[in-house]
Amino acid sequence: MKFAIALAILLANPAATASEPMVLPITGLTASDLINQYQSPLTEYGAGHRGVDLPATMGSEVTSPVSGEISFSGQVGYRDSISIKFAGTMWASLEPVCSDMAEGTLVSAGEPIGTVCQTNPNYQWHCEITCIHFGTRTEDGYFSPLALIGGLPVSRLVPLGDQALG
Predict the structure, then answer these.
(1) pTM
(2) Domains in the chain: how many in total?
(3) Residue 47 placed within a domain
(4) pLDDT exceeds 50 at position 1
(5) What is the CATH number of the domain that holds 65?
Protein backbone atom coordinates (compact mmCIF):
# COMPACT_ATOMS: atom_id res chain seq x y z
CA MET A 1 0.00 0.00 0.00
CA LYS A 2 2.85 2.41 0.87
CA PHE A 3 4.37 1.79 -2.58
CA ALA A 4 1.07 2.57 -4.33
CA ILE A 5 0.77 5.88 -2.47
CA ALA A 6 4.42 6.81 -3.12
CA LEU A 7 4.08 5.91 -6.80
CA ALA A 8 0.85 7.94 -7.13
CA ILE A 9 2.63 10.98 -5.69
CA LEU A 10 5.65 10.38 -7.93
CA LEU A 11 3.55 9.99 -11.06
CA ALA A 12 1.47 13.06 -10.20
CA ASN A 13 4.55 15.25 -9.75
CA PRO A 14 7.94 13.68 -10.54
CA ALA A 15 9.59 17.09 -10.05
CA ALA A 16 8.66 16.90 -6.37
CA THR A 17 11.19 14.10 -5.87
CA ALA A 18 13.74 14.56 -8.64
CA SER A 19 15.65 17.81 -8.96
CA GLU A 20 16.10 17.48 -12.74
CA PRO A 21 14.58 15.44 -15.54
CA MET A 22 15.92 11.95 -16.09
CA VAL A 23 17.33 11.09 -19.53
CA LEU A 24 17.74 7.82 -21.40
CA PRO A 25 21.18 6.23 -20.88
CA ILE A 26 21.93 5.69 -24.59
CA THR A 27 22.39 8.91 -26.57
CA GLY A 28 19.98 9.41 -29.46
CA LEU A 29 17.21 7.11 -28.21
CA THR A 30 13.67 8.17 -27.36
CA ALA A 31 10.96 6.48 -25.29
CA SER A 32 9.44 5.17 -28.54
CA ASP A 33 12.61 3.08 -29.12
CA LEU A 34 11.85 0.76 -26.17
CA ILE A 35 12.01 -2.96 -26.82
CA ASN A 36 10.20 -4.07 -23.64
CA GLN A 37 8.02 -2.00 -21.31
CA TYR A 38 7.91 -2.08 -17.51
CA GLN A 39 5.49 -4.72 -16.13
CA SER A 40 4.66 -4.47 -12.46
CA PRO A 41 4.69 -7.79 -10.58
CA LEU A 42 1.45 -8.79 -8.86
CA THR A 43 3.33 -9.50 -5.63
CA GLU A 44 6.62 -8.29 -4.15
CA TYR A 45 8.48 -11.40 -5.36
CA GLY A 46 6.27 -12.20 -8.35
CA ALA A 47 7.15 -12.29 -12.01
CA GLY A 48 7.36 -8.99 -13.85
CA HIS A 49 9.73 -6.77 -15.79
CA ARG A 50 11.10 -4.24 -13.32
CA GLY A 51 12.41 -1.76 -15.86
CA VAL A 52 12.52 -1.05 -19.58
CA ASP A 53 14.81 -2.43 -22.29
CA LEU A 54 16.55 -0.22 -24.82
CA PRO A 55 18.32 -1.32 -28.01
CA ALA A 56 22.11 -1.01 -27.80
CA THR A 57 25.15 -2.37 -29.54
CA MET A 58 27.98 -4.15 -27.77
CA GLY A 59 30.51 -1.54 -26.65
CA SER A 60 28.03 1.36 -26.82
CA GLU A 61 28.69 4.18 -24.39
CA VAL A 62 26.23 4.30 -21.50
CA THR A 63 25.57 7.64 -19.83
CA SER A 64 24.13 8.44 -16.43
CA PRO A 65 20.37 8.96 -16.72
CA VAL A 66 20.42 11.33 -13.74
CA SER A 67 22.78 13.27 -11.50
CA GLY A 68 23.62 11.33 -8.36
CA GLU A 69 26.12 9.02 -6.69
CA ILE A 70 27.32 5.61 -7.88
CA SER A 71 25.94 3.25 -5.24
CA PHE A 72 27.02 -0.04 -6.87
CA SER A 73 29.26 -1.08 -9.73
CA GLY A 74 30.03 -4.75 -10.23
CA GLN A 75 28.65 -8.13 -11.15
CA VAL A 76 25.20 -9.42 -10.20
CA GLY A 77 24.72 -13.01 -11.28
CA TYR A 78 26.24 -13.29 -14.74
CA ARG A 79 25.95 -9.61 -15.66
CA ASP A 80 27.75 -6.39 -14.87
CA SER A 81 25.54 -3.72 -13.39
CA ILE A 82 25.77 -0.13 -12.19
CA SER A 83 23.37 1.74 -9.88
CA ILE A 84 23.07 5.44 -9.18
CA LYS A 85 21.40 6.85 -6.07
CA PHE A 86 19.59 10.13 -6.70
CA ALA A 87 17.05 12.48 -5.11
CA GLY A 88 17.87 11.03 -1.69
CA THR A 89 15.81 7.84 -1.86
CA MET A 90 15.77 6.64 -5.48
CA TRP A 91 18.04 4.40 -7.54
CA ALA A 92 18.54 3.91 -11.27
CA SER A 93 20.14 0.62 -12.36
CA LEU A 94 21.58 -0.37 -15.73
CA GLU A 95 22.74 -3.75 -17.01
CA PRO A 96 24.78 -5.21 -18.58
CA VAL A 97 27.14 -2.27 -18.15
CA CYS A 98 30.88 -2.57 -17.52
CA SER A 99 32.29 0.38 -15.60
CA ASP A 100 35.43 1.38 -13.74
CA MET A 101 33.52 3.91 -11.63
CA ALA A 102 33.91 3.49 -7.87
CA GLU A 103 31.03 3.54 -5.41
CA GLY A 104 30.62 7.04 -4.02
CA THR A 105 31.60 8.77 -7.28
CA LEU A 106 29.34 11.72 -8.10
CA VAL A 107 28.01 11.78 -11.67
CA SER A 108 25.96 14.22 -13.73
CA ALA A 109 23.09 13.35 -16.05
CA GLY A 110 24.53 12.58 -19.49
CA GLU A 111 28.03 11.80 -18.18
CA PRO A 112 29.60 8.57 -19.53
CA ILE A 113 29.55 5.83 -16.87
CA GLY A 114 30.42 2.65 -18.79
CA THR A 115 29.79 0.52 -21.86
CA VAL A 116 27.33 -2.20 -22.86
CA CYS A 117 29.19 -5.47 -22.32
CA GLN A 118 28.99 -9.22 -21.87
CA THR A 119 31.75 -10.32 -19.54
CA ASN A 120 30.44 -13.79 -18.72
CA PRO A 121 29.61 -16.34 -21.44
CA ASN A 122 26.78 -17.72 -19.24
CA TYR A 123 24.86 -14.42 -19.44
CA GLN A 124 21.51 -14.96 -21.18
CA TRP A 125 20.17 -11.90 -23.02
CA HIS A 126 16.45 -11.45 -22.44
CA CYS A 127 15.96 -9.40 -25.62
CA GLU A 128 16.06 -10.75 -29.17
CA ILE A 129 18.74 -8.14 -29.96
CA THR A 130 21.46 -6.66 -27.77
CA CYS A 131 19.79 -4.39 -25.23
CA ILE A 132 20.33 -2.56 -21.98
CA HIS A 133 17.94 -3.01 -19.05
CA PHE A 134 17.13 0.27 -17.26
CA GLY A 135 15.24 0.15 -13.96
CA THR A 136 14.30 2.61 -11.23
CA ARG A 137 13.19 2.07 -7.67
CA THR A 138 12.56 3.68 -4.32
CA GLU A 139 12.82 2.08 -0.89
CA ASP A 140 9.22 0.94 -1.43
CA GLY A 141 9.71 -0.80 -4.77
CA TYR A 142 10.28 -0.57 -8.50
CA PHE A 143 8.60 1.78 -10.97
CA SER A 144 9.02 2.57 -14.66
CA PRO A 145 11.82 5.03 -15.45
CA LEU A 146 9.41 6.54 -17.96
CA ALA A 147 7.61 8.10 -14.97
CA LEU A 148 10.60 10.46 -14.71
CA ILE A 149 11.47 10.70 -18.41
CA GLY A 150 8.06 10.83 -20.06
CA GLY A 151 6.60 8.37 -22.51
CA LEU A 152 4.43 6.24 -20.22
CA PRO A 153 1.65 4.54 -22.19
CA VAL A 154 -1.73 6.25 -21.83
CA SER A 155 -3.98 4.75 -19.13
CA ARG A 156 -7.51 3.84 -20.16
CA LEU A 157 -10.55 3.27 -17.99
CA VAL A 158 -12.49 0.09 -18.67
CA PRO A 159 -16.28 0.10 -18.19
CA LEU A 160 -17.80 -2.23 -15.60
CA GLY A 161 -20.59 -4.78 -15.91
CA ASP A 162 -22.01 -5.79 -19.30
CA GLN A 163 -19.73 -3.33 -21.08
CA ALA A 164 -16.49 -4.78 -19.64
CA LEU A 165 -13.90 -6.26 -21.96
CA GLY A 166 -14.00 -9.99 -22.42
Answers:
(1) 0.79
(2) 1
(3) yes
(4) no
(5) 2.70.70.10
